[in-house]
């Protein structure tokens, strides 16, 4: 007989409801093809969209390069007119060697020609001649910022007899925006120190480098013919004057978090376009978002279908639930409900035969007073949802820290620690942890009442690791603060080992004290006469927790005299944290 019973083992597998099964199976049937199709199409779509993005970047980069080439060629063409090929260059030589009476007429002719050149070249800005020896300027069409030497401008490249600069701030005293410029020596028979300086208008830079709506997010660099950065729109990562690394053709070049693309000009200078990874991946990420939305809708529809199927079974399940509730309410003579469903009717019949056994089980559960008390205490401890509260406080704390409100950050951090500790799921804690929670609580109360409380703690070092129920000490200190809030109030907390097997906790204050009637009302959770209900709930929790944990082995006493003091004393069995855990594990086994 014993051998036969040994083969009968209780089924400890966790049961799953029909609704849960449907909510899992139906979404899986919708999700599986989505995953397969999405996985296959992702790689092809990624290649297509990345090629599309690269084509757009390369096209934009080529446009910038061509525009810059045209700008430099235009400066070269204008410089030839102003230096020696055009009428201006020839008149300039006559002007420098002419007598005084001839200079006035030549000056008018040169200014007229410069104006004509500027009119036929609308992208041309400041123009003037200057001597490299004495710095004297001739025929400037705008006011010149003399504080910036032309030789200090950022050099882009040198080709034949012309040197290009920029982008840099205009030497036009009334402008100061970014321009390209060029300097060419004027060929004169009598002098070799005359140069012509010319620069583009600021609108030319805007048309070349400024990104339009299609290319928003692009960052441009211009690298001179020596491989150094002459212009940068992202100086934090790519500073002007730094050497720009060579890019690997045909590969994805990533520099400092940016995808880099370059195109070389006719004279070895380069235009570089940078785009951050997020913008570069925008197309594929948008496709992933759209596909994810479709998947989410499919799963939602599957869940809805699972819910509809579950509702078709709701009435039989509800009848079964009502029969079980009748058994729980000891309505043993109530008729069995039928659902016109063969499977459920069989269950109802079996339930009817099991009523006797269920009643005996209910009586057994009702007789277990200790378990009932622990459940009631647990219910009190879990009346609020700690996750929402703690997460909200964390959010407030980070907002305060980001705004530089360090005091608020410190207070919220203390409150968060206190709540996290008091709402912890573990029912026991050490004396040391309880004292830390009390310190945080007192500091928060000091901020609330703008009063510095004097709380003296005397604790036997031997009992710091003793295990006691969580949230036992704070209600006692809270009660002391409530009855000792005068500016000269003092609270004494004493924790010592009493004898060999007991722990003594005493909280004293020299406040207003309480009458016997007030003590009785607090113990019953009623208002204390001043309309404050919360103190009674805290003390009531301590009493019920001690009764649930230690039964008759612990004691709780309040001694008070009006106008003098109040003392709350706890005496409970001495337990070390490791011993309490072993005892709990043994009882669970």
Morphology call: elongated
Overall residue-averaged pLDDT value: 77
Instruction: State the strand order across the main sheet.
Output: 2-1-6-5-4-3
- Strand % is 15-25%
Terminal Cα span? 26 Å
How many strand elements? Answer: 18
Cα-based radius of gyration, to the nearest Å: 44 Å
Q: Find the structural class using helix and strand composition.
A: alpha+beta
Tally of individual helices = 18
Output the keywords:
589 residues; alpha+beta; 6-stranded antiparallel β-sheet; 5-stranded antiparallel β-sheet; 18 strands; elongated
Question: Layout of SSEs?
Answer:
Elements: H1 2-6, H2 18-83, H3 87-97, H4 100-120, E1 124-131, E2 137-138, E3 155-159, E4 162-169, E5 178-185, E6 194-200, H5 202-209, E7 218-223, E8 229-232, E9 253-255, E10 258-264, E11 270-276, H6 277-280, H7 282-312, H8 314-328, H9 342-353, H10 355-367, H11 369-381, H12 386-402, H13 406-422, E12 428-430, H14 431-449, E13 454-459, E14 467-469, H15 473-482, E15 490-498, E16 502-509, H16 516-523, H17 534-550, E17 555-561, E18 565-573, H18 577-588
Parallel strand pairs: 13-15
Antiparallel strand pairs: 1-2, 1-6, 3-4, 4-5, 5-6, 7-8, 7-11, 9-10, 10-11, 12-14, 15-16, 16-18, 17-18
Helix pairs in contact: 2-3, 2-5, 2-7, 3-4, 8-9, 11-17, 12-13, 13-14, 14-15, 15-17
């Amino acid at each position: 007989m014993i051998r036969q019973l040994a083969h009968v083992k209780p089924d400890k597998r966790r049961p799953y409801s029909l609704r849960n099964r449907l909510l899992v199976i139906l979404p899986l049937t919708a999700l599986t093809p989505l995953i397969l199709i999405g996985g296959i199409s992702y790689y092809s779509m990624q290649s297509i969209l990345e090629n599309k993005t690269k084509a757009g970047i390369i096209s934009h980069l080529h446009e910038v390069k061509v525009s810059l080439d045209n700008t430099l060629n235009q400066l070269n063409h204008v410089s030839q007119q102003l230096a020696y090929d055009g009428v201006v260059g020839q008149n300039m030589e006559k002007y420098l060697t002419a007598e005084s009476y001839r200079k006035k007429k030549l000056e008018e002719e040169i200014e007229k020609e410069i104006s004509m050149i500027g009119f036929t070249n609308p992208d041309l800005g400041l123009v003037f001649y200057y001597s490299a020896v004495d710095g004297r300027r001739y025929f400037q069409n705008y006011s010149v910022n003399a504080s910036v030497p032309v030789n200090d401008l950022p050099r882009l490249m040198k080709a034949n007899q012309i040197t290009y600069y920029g982008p840099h701030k205009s030497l036009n005293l009334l402008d100061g925006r970014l321009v390209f410029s060029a300097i060419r020596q004027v060929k004169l028979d009598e002098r070799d120190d005359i140069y012509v300086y010319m620069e583009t208008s600021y609108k030319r830079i805007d048309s070349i480098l400024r990104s339009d709506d299609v290319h928003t997010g692009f960052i441009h660099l211009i690298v001179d013919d020596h491989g150094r950065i002459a212009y940068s729109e992202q100086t934090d990562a790519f500073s002007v004057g730094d050497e720009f690394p060579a890019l690997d053709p045909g590969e994805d070049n990533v520099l400092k978090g940016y995808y880099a693309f370059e195109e070389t000009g006719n004279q070895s200078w380069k235009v570089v376009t940078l785009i951050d990874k997020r913008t570069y991946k925008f197309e594929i990420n948008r496709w992933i978002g759209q596909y994810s939305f479709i998947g989410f809708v499919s799963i939602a529809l599957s869940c809805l279908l699972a819910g509809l199927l579950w509702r078709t079974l709701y009435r039989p399940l509800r009848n079964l639930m009502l029969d079980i509730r009748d058994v729980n309410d000891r309505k043993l003579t109530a008729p069995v409900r039928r659902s016109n469903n063969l499977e459920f009717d069989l269950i109802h019949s079996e339930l009817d035969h099991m009523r006797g056994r269920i009643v005996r089980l209910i009586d057994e559960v009702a007789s277990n007073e200790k378990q009932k008390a622990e459940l009631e205490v647990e219910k009190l401890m879990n009346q609020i949802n700690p996750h929402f509260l703690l997460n909200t406080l964390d959010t407030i704390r980070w907002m305060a820290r980001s705004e530089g409100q360090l005091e608020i950050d410190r207070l919220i951090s203390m409150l968060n620690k206190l709540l996290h500790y008091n709402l912890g799921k573990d029912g026991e804690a050490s004396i040391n942890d309880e004292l830390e929670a009390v310190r945080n609580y007192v500091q928060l109360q000091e901020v609330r009442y703008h009063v510095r409380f004097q709380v003296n703690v005397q604790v036997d070092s031997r009992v710091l690791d003793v295990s006691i129920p969580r949230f036992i000490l704070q209600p006692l200190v809270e009660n002391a603060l409530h009855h000792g809030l005068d500016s000269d109030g003092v609270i004494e907390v004493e924790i010592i080992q009493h004898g060999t097997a007991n722990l003594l906790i005493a909280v004293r204050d020299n406040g207003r004290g309480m009458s016997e009637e007030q003590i009785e009302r607090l113990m019953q959770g009623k208002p204390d006469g001043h309309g404050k209900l919360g103190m009674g709930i805290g003390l009531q929790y301590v009493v019920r927790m001690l009764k649930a944990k230690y039964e008759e082995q612990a004691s709780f006493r309040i001694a008070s005299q009006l106008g003098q003091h109040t003392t709350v004393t706890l005496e409970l069995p001495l337990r070390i944290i490791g011993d309490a855990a072993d005892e709990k594990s043994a009882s669970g086994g």
